[in-house]
Design brief:
38% of the residues lie in helices and 15% in strands. By secondary structure, the protein is of the alpha/beta class. The strands form three sheets. It has a six-stranded parallel beta sheet with strand order 10-9-11-12-14-13, sandwiched between helices. It has a five-stranded parallel beta sheet with strand order 5-4-6-7-8, covered by helices on one side. It has a three-stranded parallel beta sheet with strand order 1-3-2. Strand 6, helix 7 and strand 7 form a beta-alpha-beta unit. Helix 4 runs parallel beside helix 8 and helix 10 crosses helix 17. It is globular, with a radius of gyration of 25 Å. It binds thiamine diphosphate and magnesium ion. Thiamine diphosphate binds next to helix 11 and helix 13.
Length: 490
């Protein structure tokens, strides 16, 4: 519910409850469910005990229509309906009355949020003066098919390079000529970033996954920072936005693009793109030199073997960061999903299998071992609903991400309370649920294992076993290679 609230996923939560007279008086299996999810729902309704009256049915059906419309947004999100029931908790033999009115009781038009013409005109006039503009796209799962073209039109009109992370779902062919590859690696090189300060940034989607990008944008709070928001949210934890433009993102981008005057050719965007290409080539070479596996091998291999129609669900912690840093711009345009609202590591297996239930193409999940373990029970859906997915588990026996934090120096408590290694062999648990299990410990064996899993008739878990210390050192070598390629000091 929390993730759905933050990620603007329409969700209707129906909870069954005791009737009012059994609440708060020692009755078993009864807790206070009123507004149980606090501020994490768009709407809460205590529905009341059912009544066999035509007016009650009208209310129930109107409620269904309204709850659906509220969950659909904008902004989309969870709606919680609490249904108290009295015993005997079984339906009457015959419905009390039958209606002929079918389908949705009330159809709701949410209207369309369009940018105000005078504000976009002002913003466009200000942007017209920008010499060093950027377009930044954070995690976004916007089904609007016109969005990539609109973003491309805006970036072209601005002369701006596009820093679109793979989870923005905007790395579509129309945007590839404008895209900066490996922007996370580029932004780790101070010699480059110091020489390329932006004076205007247009941002779409959730805040960037790359910490290097997020902190660098934060440092430039003197630049015009325009945040485009389609859903009545405030996707701006850094507090640097100069303007928040609300409206359908494609409409906002297209309107701005049209309002911008032609501008002289500049080397600004090509310089970013050349840096990105050099960084990418250096990362790929660095990866090829590693003989022991680490997370980046998994990302690199998925980019090679996944068909374009794949849904790739990326878990939190290192998975989403390494995916962001190592997924190449020319990878297949898979649909990327990630729980980037609350960034929880919980519920991941269920999230992936839920996507598998709703997808026609292959579904692949990429996550850490603790994330996988946290929702092991979610694997029951494989059997129960006959679902097929590939889960690639980055198994470093604990939370590898904490090696990157200052707490890693606190060696007395670090392993036990932060890394929390479990030492488990996941195979028997996975096999208990009827899924296949493959363990890989050499980089060369990974791509064939994933390809086999994609072709297998059942859900398969591919576990990449590697060492946290190896990963840390390999990451260091990869960033050093990218830095050298961009002329940074070692
Ligand atoms: C529900 C939840 N609990 C705790 C956290 C804090 N947390 C963030 S990353 C992480 C470790 C994840 O370990 P793993 O899935 O193995 O990924 P790795 O860091 O090893 O790549 C934890 C506990 C969280 N994000 N969500
Ligand atoms: Mg781990």
């Amino acid at each position: 519910v929390v993730e759905a609230f933050h990620a603007q996923v329409p969700l209707i939560v129906l909870t069954a409850d005791r009737p009012p007279e059994l609440r708060d008086c020692g009755a078993g299996q009864t807790i206070d469910q009123l507004k149980l999810f606090g501020g994490f729902v768009r709407w809460f309704v205590e529905v009341g005990t059912p009544e066999a009256r035509p007016a009650a049915e009208r209310w129930m059906r109107t409620l269904a229509a309204r709850a659906t419309a509220t969950a659909a947004g904008p902004p989309a999100g969870p709606v919680h309906l609490n249904f108290p029931f009295r015993e005997p908790l079984v339906p009457d033999a015959e419905p009390p009355f039958a209606r002929t009115r079918r389908g949705a009781w009330t159809t709701v038009d949410p209207g369309m949020l369009v940018p105000s013409p005078d504000v976009t005109a002002t913003v466009a006039a200000n942007l017209a003066g920008a010499r060093r503009p950027l377009v930044v796209c954070g995690p976004l799962d916007d089904p609007d098919p016109t969005l990539p073209t609109a973003v491309a039109a805006l970036a072209t009109a601005l002369g701006a390079p596009v820093l679109a992370e793979p989870a923005s779902n905007l790395r579509r062919p129309v945007l590839l000529p404008l895209l900066v590859d490996a922007h996370d690696a580029v932004l780790r090189v101070a010699e480059f970033t110091d020489a390329h300060p932006p004076d205007a940034v247009v941002r779409l989607g959730a805040p960037p996954t790359s910490k290097a990008l997020a902190t660098w944008l934060e440092r430039h709070d003197d630049a015009m920072q325009i945040v485009v928001d389609g859903g009545g949210q405030w996707p701006e934890p850094a507090g640097i936005a100069t303007t928040l433009l609300r409206g359908r993102p494609s409409a906002v981008c297209a309107t701005l693009a049209t309002a911008l005057p032609a501008r002289p050719a500049s080397d600004w965007a090509p310089r970013w793109r050349r840096a990105g290409a050099a960084a990418r080539a250096a990362l790929t070479e660095a990866l090829a030199r590693e003989t022991a596996p680490f997370e980046a091998h998994a990302v690199h291999d998925l980019a090679r073997v996944l068909p374009a129609e794949t849904t790739l669900y990326v878990g939190n912690s290192m998975a989403v960061r390494v995916f962001d840093a190592f997924w190449p711009a020319d990878a297949p345009p898979v649909r990327v999903l990630a729980n980037r609202g609350a960034n929880g590591i919980d519920g991941f297996v269920s999230s992936v299998l839920g996507a598998a239930a709703a997808s026609t193409g292959p579904v692949v999940g990429l996550c850490g071992d603790l994330s996988f373990y946290h929702d092991l029970n979610g694997l029951l859906a494989v059997r129960r609903h006959g679902l097929r997915a590939v889960l690639l588990v980055l198994d470093n026996d604990g939370g590898g991400i904490f090696d990157l934090l200052p707490v890693a120096r606190c060696t007395d408590v670090f392993e036990e309370f932060f890394v929390t290694p479990h030492g488990l062999d996941l195979r028997p648990a996975v096999e208990m649920y009827g899924a296949g299990f493959v363990r890989v410990t050499a980089p060369a064996a990974l791509a064939p294992a994933v390809a086999d899993a994609l072709a297998a008739p059942r859900t398969t878990v591919v576990s990449l076993g590697f060492d946290r210390a190896t990963s840390l050192a390999a990451h260091g070598r990869a960033w050093a290679a990218a830095r050298a390629a961009l002329g940074g000091r070692p």
